[in-house]
Specification:
The protein is built from 8 helices and 19 strands. Helix 2 crosses helix 3. Bound molecules: 2-OXO-4-methylpentanoic acid.
């Protein structure tokens, strides 16, 4: 949609905006929106051809025009990020965006895609958010989900790195990620399929990792479970991560999470939880955790809490684990004390309601 009056050039970004009276209705109850199904009026995009990012634009959200031979469609040559913006009165706040853009570039390097200047990536997002600030919901428990995405667009079926890429950012208001809301989730331990192996792409946020997880998800659904916990690929013994979250276990006073070793996604929320746990005077450990230790600990009472964490999920208490045809209850199916404290503090910091002692918040201005 070309509107010469609204077209302007700022920071080398071209603006092509939807007239105010043609903008979409916002959802009346954002907490009821199914995650990732409603999108704002505009998106950002830039193309990489001939070795540099060009044609940076903020324009109406809408379908992409892609050649059916585009490499992303055939070889999952695609990466993405997940971030959120929160509203505090008139202010819009981002949470540790530099970590997401660093991870985007790490994913790009792993997948032989071009990197993007992190300052430019952040500034593009900020420019988009300035236009879409009315889309940042105010209701507690809601936020504006941000999906930066890079895809290989060259039409070529030969398998080699693409010579053309599209990077874009789309936005949409969201409530809780899980249908359970913020109530404890049920996690199915997969010992049949694996997600990643060291040396593979598990630490990159690349699209194929998620498609590869769907089959195990159907096993989980059959027994009424919603998420899959992955074990290591070699021994099927060491816990790795849940499909959309990193995992923490509290054994008595010890808080532990599996170490990043190349097969686990380096979560921004994971890193924040490690920091907050230290603030609480705990000594969180990044260590190998076997599924047997967890199952024994659930039976003996040594496992006090299990929770997942991620941008979309925030902090998700685990109420039940399914392992080898047996369900195990966690924390009596309730949210544990540490899980609740982390949830409250994290949401409090992200939404600007609590002090931000680590300087994690970046205001959109
Ligand atoms: C996120 O937490 O933002 C993710 O990327 C998980 C997602 C696949 C929903």
């Amino acid at each position: 949609m070309y509107n010469p009056e609204l077209m302007c050039l700022r920071m080398n970004i071209e603006f092509d905006l939807v007239p105010k009276d043609e903008r979409k209705e916002k959802p009346t109850d954002v907490l009821q929106v199914s995650f990732g199904t409603v999108f704002s009026d505009h998106m950002f995009s830039t193309r990489h051809t001939g070795g540099s990012w060009e044609d940076a634009r903020i324009h109406p959200f809408g379908p992409l025009s892609l050649n059916p031979a585009a490499q992303c469609l055939h070889y999952a040559h695609a990466i993405f990020e997940g971030m959120k913006a929160y509203r505090r009165g008139d202010r819009v706040l981002l949470f540790r965006p530099e970590m997401n853009f660093k991870r985007l570039n790490d994913s790009a390097e792993r997948m032989v895609m071009p990197t993007i200047d992190p300052n430019f990536a952040l500034q593009s997002l900020i420019e988009l958010l300035k236009i879409e600030y009315e889309w940042v919901p105010e209701v507690p428990g809601s936020s504006l989900y941000i999906r930066p995405t890079m895809i290989a667009t060259e039409p070529k079926l030969g398998v080699r790195p693409s010579l053309e890429y599209l990077y874009y950012i789309i936005l949409g208001p969201v409530g809780p990620y899980f249908k359970e809301g913020f109530a404890p989730v049920k996690i199915f331990v997969s010992d049949k399929y694996v997600r990643a192996v060291k040396g593979g792409t598990g630490a990159a946020k690349t699209s194929g990792n998620y498609a590869a997880c769907l089959l195990a998800g159907t096993d989980a659904t059959k027994v009424g479970y919603s998420q899959v916990l992955w074990l290591d690929a070699l021994e099927r013994k060491w816990i790795e991560e849940v499909g959309t979250m990193n995992l923490f276990v509290r054994f008595d006073d010890e808080v532990a999470t599996p170490p990043l070793g190349g097969s686990i996604l380096p979560g921004v929320t994971r890193d924040s939880v490690l920091t907050l746990a230290k603030d609480y005077g705990l000594t969180p450990k990044e260590r190998m955790i076997s599924i047997y230790e967890v199952i024994e600990g659930l039976s003996s009472g040594k496992v006090k809490e299990i929770f997942g964490c991620g941008t979309a999920a925030i902090i998700a208490p685990v109420g039940s684990l399914w392992y080898k045809d047996t369900p195990y209850e966690v924390s009596n199916g309730q949210t544990g004390e540490l899980t609740q404290r982390l949830f409250d503090d994290l949401i409090g910091i992200q939404s600007g309601e609590r002090e931000d002692p680590h300087g994690w918040i970046v205001p959109v201005e």
